[in-house]
Write a structure and sequence with these properties.
Chain lengths: ~700, ~550
């Protein structure tokens, strides 16, 4: 492990993090009404982040935000002027508020980062100096975790902390991953298959595994996670850069407007009223400080909202792309349908009653512990009133458990052999015993297949020979509310495509039931890849989830690839997000968070620009009403005096930043709706609101100032 | 009929005529710029200049064409003025001084047509027809070509090709400007404008004074002057001169001519991007701003506040009696908002507030509807900015017509919107700081400042109209205004063509329900709002010290 651990522990005694990774992080859940919520804002965070905010006054840091850099320069200029004329209380007040403006901006960023820091600290606790048991040929040697290289094989046994990210190559073990996921229930990790990835810093609870290390120390998942939540790895996203350019150009425009105002004012005879301090105040009021101050906080908070939902975005670019996604690829199983198929019907063949089939199905499923088997027992009870019998109740019964090899389960009791299972297996079993398969069993089975279900045959071998009794209809059960979810996505302009290994008939039936726009049946990884490329060729952005190594190329190709944390390290490496909860439905929330991030930026930019109108009406008459009394007509707010007007505008400009910090961190309200309605709504709130709010705010501050300081 | 009612009818007739022509002319221009066929006369021209009309150009090549052609044009015009006394049909006029010749050459090539001279007492027949009139055509065609290149940027994908500058230039002249000008010139002659190559008539007036009456190819220049949103009058009095604009009908015709191409180009745009409704949204934004300004100026002029106008019974100073307040206001708004700059009344004499609206019309960047071509590309740049800000509010990274507005696009659009405000403000500030502004003023106080501000606004935005009181023919102003005109015309073109190239190279993003609908009224409203706020905010302090200080005082 890397050296930047905060505590030195006895190398042998490793610390199991007892807490979830981010207990300090506000919890966030979907609101019942479906809108995306986020953490609450704690005003105490402002005070705690103040030292960080002051540290950010370093010009080398400030230059990253051109707008706030101009305010910083303005603050320095007014400070120098105020020092040269120490008796000028107005100059000092303006100076103080300009500095506050800069500090408030830094505070917004510091608060946003502070939330991540708390999470990073808990993660660091999971990082301890571990000693790895490296395999060198047949022998085992003890090396520090930091000494591991990619490709090394290490052994972990119960109680060991896994020294680095890797894949299990031998054995199976239960692992406590709460350090990463916050979920305390252990998970199984085994060699081969899609559950082979292990993460450094997690703890083996039982058994022994051999792990091949796949990442260098310092670049492990947990290291990246710390960097991400701390914002250290944060780079500006393309849209953020573009917005910064626009803001910089607006700043230049206003700089020109203010600088050139001086000669105009001299000609007009308003030289005295347009002192350097007043012009600086005007400039700071005009440039888009509100959005300039909050822009990076918005970005950090967007990443943070994902972290709160246990999703780690490896790049901000992916979060932004999530807002643009127009095609969602969703795996059928686990995302659209409940993970397991369930029995929905018992269909007897001719000459047999449904109750007989139910009875046989129930008996033969008692030894089947798979969810499908359980669902047969449940259906028999619910539909035919058959009490669930326990294996012990039947004396002398020989139970045949379901295995993947036989694909059948059953029981031999009272001379009857009852079997239930996959059509092929049961047919073979019946034929072996010289029995016949009723013709209508075949018909029923294919009808069920066509309807999207899976047929299971129930057969018996008794004194009347071996024969098929009937068919169990196993059905995929679409999760509650998926139809509405997809309709919502459609209104947002997002197309959903269901991916399944089922045959086209089955796939179509489920697709129709779930209300997805399209499906890809019998999907191979190559098909998936081709589908993504086809969508992208049409200019669409594609999002998908995946967990298997097979999925890795498609995850890498997709614009937003969300890897499940339970998946292989190849998948996690290929995707640009990892879902620690391994919940594929979360893709929809990720898209919403991406949109919310962009909306928040747009809304605050609009608000910021619209604010300027009122500030002009405060400052222009204040500067020029002496030279041209007619311009006092522009003082529509009826501000008390020129000094009070300018001061009110500057104070409003500073306070609005603090007032909007919660909004920047939380993100503006987002409901799935069409672009048109969303634009109308946001323009109404942030455009019109941005025009009107400062008129009220400045007037209010003016009233306060002029009543507090009677001289004004 | 009351003058107000007459004015309402006049505006209605004008809007009706424009609406009627908008579709066929827009479609015609779309066909002209998309056609694969070359007319015989065009082929001769291509052969003569050695251009391959079918070669596609990427944006740098297209830009080189624009700049090279314009540079040669400036040089030619400059030389022509400097040697006009040695050429035939000189009417005995001397060669133009170097600074004024530079100013005039840049002025006509940049489609500004700012005139620091009086046509009838300075320019020979050869200069007027072979020099200035030719530029009236080609400078307009250059603007249209650049606009069409930008439209192709939106319409095309996965290519860097923007068409061929020489083809666009020649077709604009041969198939659009020339035919309409001929018809318009005939109409103007029929209605009483003069057209000849005679010598100066010297008449003896009733009071016994001698008066020189200048003849010339007036009607033909008048047609292209307005059609090409040029504005450079044959006579110093411009369209207030009875030879240029004899009566109410010609006045209306001239207003129609200066609005017709700018208001039809959005249709061309809609056609070429394959969605005419996108064009309607743009033309609606142009129309709303134009109409608001018409109403504002006309209202202030009719209200004629202030003692002098109250006594006179109207705001009649500086206006031709045969037109009156309404038609003069309509002409003034149309000419300032189209980068034309021809005048039938003197903007200097308008009320403070209405003069301010005329100034603001130019400050908006000549986009409502703007100059031929330049109006459309200016408006599209504003649409890009509006989409960028508002597009975010629908939760997607911004896109316009299926093209992503990313870092490079916004950088170019931001540069574009910086150019003219920088030129106007720095130009005016320098003039004020150096005292050269004050020495050229004929008025004092806020109105004097408005004169300087107007001059630099007009030049930088390639309008060309003037607050008549401003004495522009000084070495300083000729040079500085010349620079403003050149930079105000060609720097934005650089950014427009670079943007076109960047857009054309993209692959389009398909429309979904989540896409911002840029053909809806909501977007038009947003666009108008963005233009008014962004430009308004830039120029509010300057406007406050000029027109507002003056206008609010009455």
């Amino acid at each position: 492990m890397t050296t930047d651990t905060t505590r030195q522990e006895d190398p042998m005694s490793t610390v199991t993090p007892s807490r979830a990774p981010h207990p300090d992080a506000p919890t966030a859940h979907r609101h019942p009404d479906g809108r995306l919520g986020a953490g609450l804002f704690d005003p105490g965070q402002l005070a705690r982040s103040l030292p960080d905010a002051l540290r950010k006054l370093d010009p080398r840091v400030m230059i990253k935000s051109p707008v706030m850099f101009v305010v910083l320069v303005g603050s320095v200029v007014t400070t120098v002027l105020a020092v040269r004329d120490p008796g000028d209380w107005f100059g000092w007040t303006i100076t103080a508020w300009l500095w506050l403006t800069v500090v408030f901006a830094n505070l917004a960023e510091a608060v946003a980062e502070g939330r991540g820091k708390a999470q990073a600290d808990t993660l660091r606790r999971a990082k301890t100096d571990t000693v790895a048991r490296r395999l060198a040929g047949e022998t085992e040697e003890r090396v520090p975790g930091t000494g591991l290289r990619v490709g090394d094989l290490v052994v972990c046994e119960a109680g060991d902390i896994i020294p680095g990210d890797g894949d299990v190559v031998e054995g199976v073990a239960s692992v406590d991953e709460s350090a990463i996921t916050g979920e305390s229930a252990p998970v199984i990790r085994e060699s081969g298959g899609d559950r082979s990835a292990v993460t450094g810093g997690t703890k083996v609870l039982s058994d022994r595994v051999v792990i091949r290390i796949t990442t260098k120390p310092g670049e492990t998942f947990i290291d990246r996670m710390i960097n991400l939540v701390e914002g250290a790895a944060r780079q500006k996203t393309p849209n953020e850069i573009a917005l910064n350019i626009l803001l910089a150009s607006l700043t230049i425009v206003f700089l020109l407007a203010v600088v050139t105002l001086k000669p105009f004012a001299i000609y007009a005879g308003a030289d005295r009223q347009t002192s350097m301090i007043v012009l600086t105040a005007l400039l700071v009021c005009l440039i888009p400080t509100t959005i300039g101050a909050l822009l990076s906080a918005i970005g950090i908070a967007g990443m943070d909202r994902l972290v709160q939902r246990n999703v780690l975005a490896m790049s901000g670019r992916a979060v932004e792309a999530a807002g643009d996604v127009s095609t969602l690829l969703l795996d059928k199983t686990g995302t659209i349908t409940l993970g397991n198929r369930q029995a929905s019907e018992f269909v007897p063949v001719r000459g047999v009653t449904a109750a007989e089939v139910a009875d046989a199905a129930q008996l033969s499923s008692l030894a089947d512990e798979t969810p499908e088997g359980r669902s047969v027992v449940v259906l028999a009870k619910e539909a035919y009133g058959l009490r669930e019998r326990h294996q012990g109740e039947l004396a002398g019964a020989e139970w045949i458990a379901f295995t993947a090899q036989t694909r059948m389960s059953g029981v031999d009791v009272d001379g009857r052999r009852i079997r239930k299972g996959a059509a092929g297996s049961v047919v073979a079993w019946v034929r072996e015993r010289g029995g016949t398969v009723a013709e209508d069993a075949d018909t029923v089975a294919s009808r069920i297949s066509e309807a999207g279900g899976t047929p299971l045959l129930v057969a018996v071998h008794d004194d009347r020979g071996a024969r098929v009794l009937g068919v169990i209809h196993l059905k995929d059960v679409v999760k509650d509310g998926m139809r509405e979810r997809f309709a919502e996505l459609r209104r947002m302009g997002i197309k959903t495509i269901m991916i399944t290994g089922d045959n086209p008939l089955t796939a179509k039936a489920i697709a129709d039931e779930a209300g997805v726009d399209d499906f890809l049946a019998e999907a191979t990884p190559e098909d998936k890849m081709a589908l993504i490329k086809r969508e992208q060729a049409g200019g669409k952005l594609v999002a998908m989830t995946g967990d298997g190594t097979n999925d890795a190329p498609a995850l890498a190709q997709a614009d937003v690839g969300v890897a499940m944390n339970t998946g292989t390290s190849a998948a996690k490496e290929a995707g640009n997000m990892v879902d620690l909860d391994s919940n594929p439905t979360k893709l929809i929330e990720i898209v919403e968070i991406g949109k919310q991030l962009l909306i928040t930026r747009g809304a605050l930019t609009t608000f910021s620009i619209a604010n300027d109108v009122a500030k002009y009406f405060a400052i222009i008459p204040a500067m020029f009403a002496v030279a041209y009394p007619s311009l006092d007509k522009l003082n529509i707010m009826g501000l008390a005096s020129p000094e009070s007007a300018i001061l009110s505008a500057v104070v409003f400009n500073a306070l609005i930043i603090i007032a909007l910090v919660p909004l920047a961190l939380r993100g503006v309200r987002y409901r799935p709706m069409s672009a048109d309605r969303m634009l109308r709504r946001n323009l109404g709130i942030y455009g019109l609101g941005g025009l009107i709010a400062p008129f009220l705010g400045i007037k209010l501050i003016d009233v306060l100032i002029s009543s507090l300081i009677p001289g004004l | 009929m009351s003058p107000v009612l007459a004015d309402v009818l006049l505006v209605t007739a004008l809007v009706g005529a424009l609406a009627l022509v908008h579709r066929p002319l827009g479609d015609h221009m779309a066909a002209v710029y998309s056609s694969k066929r070359h007319l015989r006369v065009e082929q001769w021209i291509y052969r003569a200049v050695g251009a391959n009309p079918d070669a596609e150009m990427r944006w740098p090549a297209y830009l080189r064409g624009v700049l090279a052609f314009s540079a040669v044009s400036v040089l030619f015009l400059y030389v022509l003025q400097r040697v006009q006394d040695k050429l035939p049909l000189s009417l005995g006029f001397k060669a133009i001084t170097p600074d004024q010749a530079f100013n005039t050459a840049v002025s006509f090539v940049s489609n500004t047509n700012w005139q620091s001279y009086a046509g009838e007492t300075a320019m020979s027949h050869v200069t007027q027809t072979a020099g200035l009139a030719v530029q009236n055509f080609v400078s307009a065609a250059v603007g249209m070509a650049v606009a069409v290149a930008l439209v192709r940027g939106f319409a095309r994908s996965r290519t860097g090709d923007l068409g061929n500058f020489w083809t666009d230039l020649v077709r604009g002249v041969v198939r659009v400007l020339l035919p309409i000008s001929v018809v318009a010139a005939v109409l103007l002659i029929a209605a009483g404008a003069v057209q000849n190559f005679g010598d100066i008539h010297t008449l003896t007036t009733l009071t016994g004074d001698k008066q020189d009456v200048s003849p010339g190819a007036v009607a033909s220049q008048e047609a292209i002057k307005n059609l090409g949103t040029n504005g450079g009058g044959f006579f110093n009095a411009n369209s207030a001169h009875p030879f240029e604009n004899p009566n109410g009908f010609t006045n209306l015709l001239e207003i129609f001519l200066l609005l017709v191409i700018p208001f039809s180009l959005p249709r061309t745009f809609g056609r070429m991007v394959g969605n005419v409704r996108q064009g309607y949204a743009i033309v609606a934004a142009m129309g709303i701003i134009w109409l608001l300004a018409v109403v504002a100026v006309t209202w202030v002029e009719f209200a004629h506040p202030g003692t002098a106008s109250q006594i006179a019974g109207g705001s009649t100073e500086g206006k031709e009696q045969r037109f009156g307040e309404g038609p003069s206001s309509l002409f003034a708004v149309s000419t300032t908002m189209t980068s034309t700059g021809s005048v039938n009344s003197f903007h200097d004499s308008f009320q403070g507030l209405s003069g301010g609206v005329l100034l603001l019309g130019m400050m908006l960047g000549e986009i409502a509807p703007g100059g031929v071509g330049s109006g459309l590309y200016g408006m599209l740049i504003m649409a890009v900015i509006a989409v960028f800000i508002a597009g975010l509010m629908v939760g997607r990274t911004p896109e316009y017509l299926g093209k992503k507005i990313g870092t490079r696009e916004i950088k170019l659009a931001a540069c574009y919107i910086l150019v003219t405000p920088a030129l106007v403000l720095i130009g005016t500030a320098l003039a004020m700081a150096l005292g050269t502004g004050e020495s050229s003023m004929t008025n004092t106080g806020a109105h004097g400042f408005s004169e300087v501000l107007y001059a630099y606004t007009s030049a930088s935005n390639n309008n060309g109209s003037a607050f008549a009181g401003f004495a522009a023919n000084t070495e300083y102003h000729n040079t500085m205004l010349g620079l403003c005109m050149a930079l105000g015309r060609f720097l934005p073109m650089v950014f427009v063509l670079a943007l076109a190239g960047s857009l054309a190279g993209q692959k389009p993003v398909p429309d979904t329900a989540g896409t911002l609908r840029t053909e809806k009224p909501l977007f038009t409203g947003l666009l108008v709002g963005a233009i008014m706020i962004i430009t308004g905010l830039t120029f509010f302090p300057a406007l406050a010290l000029g027109p507002l200080a003056e206008g609010l005082a009455t």
